[in-house]
Design brief:
Length: about 160
């Protein structure tokens, strides 16, 4: 008889705890009690508010980054302005010493190579300009095509409403 009392107590506790265990089987991380209402659905325009909030936070971060970078960039420029002339002078000394010890034939070959490389660099700049213009035109055409498609999509959306 005594063991039935324990079993009865055990069964009563199991029945009382069953709803709590049912919740853990499909646990979503949020516990709801009858007193806690389910979270309200956000309004349809809340994504626009989120976008504005994120844009404001991005602006704030970028401004902070700029504020911190400006003094560092000034320090770098000052250091570069201070050391660059000395570096350039030493490079010229090295070049002069090397040139003094080259034969006349090698010096002439170096001048020819330098002239051909300069001509190639000029052609490269001209081609880069043409290539850049071509890609700019293609970029504009793609942007225009999609702007037109968006306009058509907005127009279809309004006619359906």
């Amino acid at each position: 008889m005594r063991s039935t009392g324990y079993w009865g107590l055990f069964l009563a506790l199991a029945v009382m705890a069953a709803p709590a265990f049912a919740d853990t089987a499909r646990d979503t991380g949020v516990r709801r009690t009858p007193e806690t209402p389910a979270p309200a659905q956000p309004p349809a325009d809340s994504w626009q508010a989120q976008v504005k909030d994120l844009e404001a936070r991005l602006k704030e971060l970028r401004d902070g980054l700029r504020t911190q970078l400006e003094p560092l960039q000034a320090q770098i420029k000052t250091l570069k302005d201070k050391l660059e002339p000395e570096i350039q002078q030493m490079q010229e000394q090295v070049k002069g010493l090397v040139e003094q010890h080259k034969s006349l034939e090698i010096q002439e070959l170096d001048r020819q190579e330098e002239a051909e490389l300069a001509a190639l660099a000029d052609r490269e700049k001209a081609e880069e300009g043409k290539l850049k213009d071509r890609f700019t035109e293609e970029r504009k055409a793609i942007q225009q095509k999609y702007a037109e498609r968006r306009g058509q999509a907005h127009g279809e959306k309004k006619t359906r409403q």
